[in-house]
Amino acid sequence: MVAEHRLYVGRFAPSPTGPLHKGSLVAALASWLDARAAGGRWLLRIEDVDEPRCSPEAADTILRQLDALGLHWDGEVVWQSRRTALYRAALERLAAQGDAYGCACTRRDLESQPLASDGARRYPGTCRDRADVRPRAWRLRVPVGEVAFDDALCGRVAIDVAADSGDFVLWRADGYCAYQLAVVVDDADQGVTDVVRGADLLTSTPRQILVQRALGLPQPRYAHVPVVLDAQGEKLSKQTRAPALEPADALTDLAEALTFLRHPPPTDVVASGREDLLAWAVQRWTLAALSRAT
Ligand code: GLU
Whose CA is nearest to atom 7 of ligand 1? Predict the structure, then answer.
């Protein structure tokens, strides 16, 4: 009898604000390996919802970089910039249910508020129960109390979203859908069962769970992998000028990322090339190697 595989749909969801670097490779590779090791599908979603910060050139570069790395995705690439109608429908539903409300506050109104874990200002709820608001942005009415989930790597995570960020933004004052709403709508619409991504997004997850609950959507399994730090202990990012991955270095970059992910490949496997290296890694991949990491 053939063992039945559980349904597995994973995804990589880069924002095309710049090319992939060694940090984004770790997130891409971990989610690709987890999907392939489970015999699952791996989708690619370009998160270009924040149009002013994204560029088509960066998106193009990311597709070419993934191809050079041998991280092939299933099906068509999904572009967030083409899915505004879907996000708008979700917002309208939340507003009709009373779970989202319009907010007229400006950045200046909020500048004395403490910073939340995502770097935005905590929202004190000024417009929560006002009827006379001309909305600039839309916010989720966040319930009091902790939101908890079990992360495959970080264990039980519980965050009091109301105390941390308060009612966070679903639709931005500049007219674009916010990441927290778009990501939830897309993960559900694409049938994503397993989200494997960088631990920098760990505190976003309880917010996304609140949106899932309000929309009656299923909650995927989550695994947040360690982020790569530079010599100064900062997360590699475009802001810290992490160099772009070069297609010619694909093999050594993959070997390095595997070592970071606690699957150091033997030199003869690396020497035999990209396909063999990836096949070796798929066979051995286990998230447990990372949870044993100190
Ligand atoms: N687009 C987000 C980023 O590049 C990742 C979103 C996600 O994996 O949920 O940081």
Answer: 13
Q: Which residues line ligand 1 (CB under 6 A)?
A: 13-15, 47, 183, 197, 201
Q: How many Å lie between the centroid of ligand 1 and the Cα of residue 131?
A: 34
What distance in angstroms lies between residue 46's CA and the mean position of ligand 1's atoms?
Answer: 9
Selection from 182, 180, 189, 192 nearest residue 221 by Cα: 192
The atom of ligand 1 lying closest to the CA of 14 is 4
CB atoms within 10 A of CB 239: 10
Q: Tokens in use for 160?
A: 């009091």
Of ligand 1's atoms, which has the minimum distance to the CA of residue 200? 10
Per-residue pLDDT tens digits for 174-189: 999 999 999 999 999 9
Task: Tell me the pLDDT tens digit for each residue of 106-151.
Answer: 999 999 999 998 888 999 999 999 988 899 999 999 999 999 999 9
**Among 218, 243, 245, 247, residue whose Cα is nearest residue 230:** 243
Sign of CA dihedral 254, 258, 259, 265: negative
For residue 154, the 8-state DSSP code is T
Residues marked as catalytic = 238
Interval between CA 211 and ligand 1 midpoint (Å): 16
Question: All domains of the chain, ordered by start, with CATH?
Answer: 9-83+185-293 (3.40.50.620), 84-171 (3.90.800.10)
Give 23: exposed, middle or buried? Use CB within 10 Å, 0-12, 13-18, 19+. buried
**Model pTM score:** 0.95
> Looking at ligand 1, which atom is closest to the CA of residue 197?
8
Closest residue by Cα to residue 168 from 125, 135, 198: 125
